[in-house]
Write a structure and sequence with these properties.
Elements lengths: L4 E5 L5 E6 L20 E5 L6
Length: 51
C-alpha cells in the first residue's frame, strides 16, 4: 500500500479522513474509533494497486 492514497467521505460528500499508505504491506489498516456510526464512501487511489 506504499504510496496509495485513500479518503473516506460521509453521505454529503464531505471528507471525513484521508491519508497515504506508508507500509509495503498488502493490507491497509485504519483506526476508526473516532468515527460516528453511519454510511461512508471509501476511495482508494493507486495506479499500481490490484483490487
Amino acid at each position: 500500500m506504499t504510496g496509495a492514497q485513500y479518503r473516506a467521505l460521509d453521505f454529503m460528500g464531505r471528507v471525513i479522513f484521508e491519508g497515504e499508505g506508508r507500509l509495503s504491506l498488502p493490507i491497509l489498516e485504519l483506526e476508526l474509533g473516532g468515527i460516528q456510526p453511519g454510511i461512508y464512501i471509501f476511495e482508494l487511489f493507486d495506479a499500481k494497486c490490484e483490487l
